Amino acid sequence: MNIKEIINTLVSGLISGSLYAIMALGLTIIYGVIHVFNFGHGIVAVLGGYFTWLFLTKLGLGLIPSILLALVFMFFFGLLLFKATINPLLKTPNWEFSTIIFLLGMGILLENLALQAFGPRVKHIPAFFEGSLKIGFVRVNWHEISLIGIVLVFILILNFFLKKTWFGQAMRAVAQDMDGARIVGISITRIFGYAFAMATMVTGFSGILLGTKYYMTPHIGWDWMVKGFVIVVLGGLGSATGAVYAAFIMGIAEALATLYLGSLWVWPIWFLIFVTILLLRPQGLAGGRTL
Amino acid sequence: MTRFNPPALEIQDVDSFYGELQVLRKASLRLQQREVVVLFGPNGHGKSTLLKAIAGIHPAAAGSIRYLGEEISRTPSAQIVEMGVAYIPEARNLFTDMTVGENLRLGAYNRRARSQVAQNLAYVFDLFPRLAERRDQIAATLSGGESRMLAVGRGLMSGAALLLIDEPSIGLSPIMKRAVFGAIAKIKSARDIAVLMVEQEVEHPLRLADRVYLLKKGRVILEKPAAEINKAEIEQAYF
Predict the structure, then answer these.
(1) Is residue A288 part of a domain?
(2) What is the number of structural domains in chain A?
(3) String of DSSP letters for A212-263
(4) Measured by CB atoms within 10 angstroms of the end CB, which terminus of chain A is less buried, N or C?
(5) Which residues of B touch A287 (CB under 8 A)?
(6) Do the Cβ atoms of A186 and B78 come within 8 Å?
């Protein structure tokens, strides 16, 4: 073990950590506000990537316009999905359980629709930048540096949105005390709807970024979702800050496991950490804090 | 005549249920503008349920609720807030991971109040200097009395014309009780506001009130000017 290895591992951990962070934030927003775990999370991320690919290759749009269009698309897809399906479900008794099962079923449906529409073959989204940066013995792609930058800027914007806008504060209010939110005049279903739409868009964005670094198939969403699940549990369900910390911890753990034990050990190590956390600190790192 | 100066609140024959259990049975009461009315009664006889019905948090099953002459028994709670009704629950329902300042600002969430955040904030801090000191503190770390103050302050931030306060004194030390009731007395004298307060404790509220109602088994069984009723008479009804 030498300094070169350590630094390279940390850098690659930071890169995957930042991608996991943005992925986990979509999950956190939905769990934090609506208090249901979105089992359709993975396929939503994949759809973000597939729509970008579609606009890029079939409509011939540039990379940035394709991404922006896909984000708009995902927002309205989320809003529509909420209004048409989840909103009526919320009015039934036992809505928490039925919503979770519904989202799981919706995930499987969308996955298979994507399989029909796009086929099973692996797809990529091109990198944002070519070439790489070399500092001493460390070599990093410009693209990967840009991914870290994008995610950090995104986290700052999200934080500003949640803390400084009326809508963001209303989302936090609903997350922290639903009756309290009603009392100050917040319409819960309205906030649910826009939070769901926003989370769908954020999740779609995470899929786009993942698709530029790794690859996409209709099935890869389940892997992403399981990783997201471990991260939000480690961070403390519903806590945005906790999710971001947890994502970087897991990213670095993954890089270390790959380097010293081999990539086949990544999943066992993830779940070892997951189970240990549940046993020692079930409330997660952020300990019951909310959005 | 009533069209031009309607009562702040007019409740007629309101029924309310929790599942199969009927809590309110044809409850009726009335509040003039700028009037302070205290609703006494034993625990579990429907006092809080009545406030929740007015605020639209737990809508009434039957009957009519009019606020300034307008029917609101079927109106969504968000709109009721916007019309000028603020509900301060016994459970407080604060946003515990937010600061005192953020909690207060959210009290002004309704569109009417947003332009008056600064004035109302100054008013609340003047009323409860303790909240000004704790402005950047997380609400979860407040003492019982302080969080009660915050709940009242958040309600005032909405710029309401009708304040519904549920047991503001419950669980507080005598000093804190005095502080909270002192603030309500100030609100009464300074603001153009009607107050409907639910209480267990009799002495302080009786001094504040213009009129008193007694609620038992979901029915209003007595209505009197506060000056004509004494503590013994109210407490007798509890048993």
Answers:
(1) no
(2) 1
(3) HHS-B-TTHHHHHHHHHHHHHHHH-TT-HHHHHHHHHHHHHHHHHHHHHT-G
(4) N
(5) none
(6) yes
Read off the tokens for A164.
């400084």
Q: Is B12 on the interface with A (CB under 8 A)?
A: no
pLDDT of amino acid B1 = 45
Q: Is residue A290 part of a domain?
A: no
* SS3 state of residue B215: strand
Q: What is the helix, strand, coil percentage profile of chain A, to 5?
A: 75, 5, 20
**Inter-chain contact B77–A289, Cβ cutoff 8 Å?**
no
Chain-wide mean pLDDT for chain A?
A: 92
**Structural domain of A139:** 3-280
Q: Is the pLDDT assigned to residue B239 strictly greater than 70?
A: no
pLDDT digits (tens, 9 = 90+) for A13-63: 999 999 999 999 999 999 999 988 899 999 999 999 999 999 999 998 999
Q: What is the pLDDT of residues B10-31, one digit of tens each?
A: 999 999 999 899 999 999 999 9
Tracing tokens 């319409």 back to the chain, one arrives at A187
Residue A1 has pLDDT above 70, yes or no: no
Question: Which tokens go with B191?
Answer: 């603001």
Q: Check A184 against B158: CB less than 8 A apart.
A: yes
CATH code: domain of residue A170: 1.10.3470
Let me know if residue A188 belongs to a domain. Answer: yes
Q: Under an 8 A CB cutoff, do A169 and B77 touch?
A: no
Residues 44-73, chain B: which have Cβ within 8 Å of A? 55, 57
Question: Is the residue at A204 inside a domain?
Answer: yes
User: Quick check: A170 and B109 CB within 8 A?
Assistant: yes
Q: Among the listed ranges A89-93, A285-289, B180-184, which one has the minimum average pLDDT value?
A: A285-289
Q: How open is the CA angle B208-B235-B149, to the nearest 5 degrees?
A: 40
- Candidate from A130-134, A186-190, B115-119 with smallest mean pLDDT: A130-134
Sign of the CA dihedral running A82, A86, A87, A88: positive
For residue A180, the model assigns a pLDDT of 96
Q: State whether residue B158 sits within 8 Å of chain A by CB.
A: yes
Arithmetic mean of pLDDT over chain B: 92
| CATH number attached to the domain at B34-56+77-237 | 3.40.50.300
Asked if B97 has any chain A CB less than 8 Å from its own CB, the reply is yes
Tell me the domain boundaries of chain B: 34-56+77-237
| Nearest CB neighbour to A184, from listed B91, B96, B107 | B107
Q: Which chain B residue has its CA at the smallest distance from A180's CA?
A: B93
Residue among B112, B182, B180, B117 nearest B146 (CA): B180
| Cβ contact A184–B154 (<8 Å) | yes
